[in-house]
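Supplementary Methods. Inverse-folding protocol.

Structures were first reduced to a discrete structure-token string of length 288. This string, shown here, constituted the complete conditioning input.
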């Protein structure tokens, strides 16, 4: 009987230890839930006007657009024939700071008789027409010109409406978090909040991208040289010509020696056969 009481006491002690551990774990989880609520409350307060959206709006207001209703993305392309591509690029780089423009891309190449370059320039959208005209006048003449205005107002407004709905849905989930009674309910609301927050950040990123494209237009510029002018401007370098000729002569001599080596290696069986034919030929004539 005493042994049974000791065993029952031991089981009771184990149960109390397990219950105490579960209580500690539950208290820790409750603290994490409260911290999670506080974090999402702060996020919801920032959500209606996120940092990315505020920065984009500040940028748009600083550029003084004529209308905030139309969301227009402007782009253009120019191909200009110039006297000297490298000098033109240097002159353009000096002008970009005055234009409040950015050089996004530059690729300079040399052809058989002249240089050519491809550039992509980002300019404030309200200066797009002026800069297209300025760029068309930097060379001898314009070979090709193209411009486009893409109205994305419908896409932008739809995205804004979806984002506002996502903010409202997030706020509703946060209120629902306060009313969650069980751990399973808290976990379900937490998962839903995580999903809606991911959607919000994705839409905020797209709006920021559109804001940047609307605020700044892009111009693709191709520069080509007049080959006649380039040929006259090119200096004669006799030392360079001599060096290139000497290198070509060494390459020719190396190729000639390679051919001789191949003949010596692969031609000796034929030489042996010809030698025996030459030795046997007198004997054949004597027999005849």
């Amino acid at each position: 009987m005493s042994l049974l009481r000791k065993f029952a006491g031991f089981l009771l002690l184990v149960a109390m230890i397990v219950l105490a551990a579960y209580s500690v774990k539950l208290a820790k989880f409750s603290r994490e839930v409260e911290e999670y609520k506080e974090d999402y409350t702060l996020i919801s307060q920032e959500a209606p006007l996120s940092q990315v959206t505020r920065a984009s709006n500040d940028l748009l207001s600083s550029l003084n657009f004529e209308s905030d209703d139309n969301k227009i993305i402007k782009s253009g392309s120019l191909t200009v024939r110039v006297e000297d591509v490298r000098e033109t690029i240097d002159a353009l780089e000096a002008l970009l700071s005055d234009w409040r423009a950015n050089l996004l891309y530059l690729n300079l190449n040399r052809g058989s008789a002249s240089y050519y370059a491809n550039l992509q320039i980002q300019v404030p959208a309200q200066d797009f027409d002026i800069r297209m005209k300025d760029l068309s006048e930097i060379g001898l003449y314009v070979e090709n010109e193209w411009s486009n205005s893409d109205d994305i107002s419908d896409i932008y407004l739809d995205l804004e409406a979806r984002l506002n709905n996502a903010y409202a849905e997030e706020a509703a989930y946060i209120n629902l978090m306060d009313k969650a009674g069980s751990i399973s309910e808290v976990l379900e609301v937490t998962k839903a909040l995580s999903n809606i927050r991911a959607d919000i950040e994705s839409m905020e990123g797209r709006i920021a991208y559109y804001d940047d494209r609307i605020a700044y237009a892009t111009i693709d510029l191709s520069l080509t040289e007049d080959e006649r002018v380039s040929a006259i401007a090119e200096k004669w370098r006799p030392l360079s010509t001599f060096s290139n000729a000497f290198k070509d002569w060494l390459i020719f001599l190396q190729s000639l020696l390679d051919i001789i080596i191949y003949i010596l290696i692969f031609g000796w069986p034929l030489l042996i056969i010809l030698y025996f034919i030459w030795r046997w030929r007198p004997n054949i004539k004597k027999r005849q």
